[in-house]
Amino acid sequence: MSDISISQLSKTYPGATPVHALDNIDLHVQAGEFVALLGPSGCGKSTLLNMIAGFESASGGSLLVGGKPVTRPGPERGVVFQEAALFPWLNVWENVIFGPKTAGLPKAQYEQRAKDMLEITGLSAFTKALPVQLSGGMRQRVGIARVLTLGSQVLLMDEPFGALDAQTRLTMQELLLSVWQNLRTTVVFVTHDIDEAILLADTIYVMSARPGRIATRIPVPIERPRTLDLITGDVFNELKRDILQKMRH
Ligand SMILES: Nc1ncnc2c1ncn2[C@@H]1O[C@H](COP(=O)(O)OP(=O)(O)OP(=O)(O)O)[C@@H](O)[C@H]1O
Ligand SMILES: [Mg+2]
């Protein structure tokens, strides 16, 4: 499993008016840790995630995953976006096996894994369906099954449930909790939603507005396995109050 080690990382988007998006980010995510990045719109959460994914390069500082500098995207870092970017002409099964198949991995191995992940995400009955025939929540589950089939050691999730209705969102959070409970991959999860961050993460990092910095590190002292009803508990509410206060400053 891979840890993520970020030090003095900065990012300026070039252009007529350069945008200083990230400033001196220091962040260490342990192997198997679930981290949530919380912060206001435009503070650089997606930028940071895209840099870990290898979609964007740094303007300064260092970024290591599993001890190696990130220079490009790779299958050991799976990404889930707000909208699952599925191939519309491929059915669910073909979408899920596309990555490992293209990478030339052993067929028996990825097919078994794809079956397991479609089972876990409740999609076994929909393997032949095309993306257009699925609901938003189902498409997002395909996106998650696909990334899990890749067997990535690091999962990078950018508001993966942000476009879903409240009910579906809760179901997806529950699903992710139970999947992660078994896999224990390293996760960086971007969200605006304090409840979601507390429910899912071991550690929450609150970012401040542009240029984005890590303002606070907040460990979540709630034991696992977790279920949705912890949202009504005292520890949860106290933590939420504390985070709200820190976000106001
Ligand atoms: N490709 C780009 N080119 C130029 N500027 C960019 C680019 N991508 C992001 N930015 C700028 O960098 C800053 C951080 O953007 P980013 O998308 O990382 O924020 P965010 O925290 O993910 O916001 P949100 O919560 O709204 O998704 C913003 O000011 C944005 O305008
Ligand atoms: Mg974003």
Automatic annotation (TrEMBL):
SMART domains, alphabetized: AAA
Identification of the protein by name: NitT/TauT family transport system ATP-binding protein
Pfam entry (one): ABC_tran
Keyword Lyase assigned: no
Molecular-function annotations in GO: ATP binding; ATP hydrolysis activity
Keywords associated with the record: ATP-binding, Cell membrane, Membrane, Nucleotide-binding, Transport
Family note: Belongs to the ABC transporter superfamily.
Species of the source: Pigmentiphaga litoralis
Span of domain ABC transporter: 4-234
Domain of life: Bacteria
Keyword NAD found: no
InterPro entries assigned to the protein according to its UniProt record, in alphabetical order: AAA+_ATPase, ABC_transporter-like_ATP-bd, ABC_transporter-like_CS, ABC_transporter_ATP-bind, P-loop_NTPase
SUPFAM superfamilies the UniProt entry points to: P-loop containing nucleoside triphosphate hydrolases
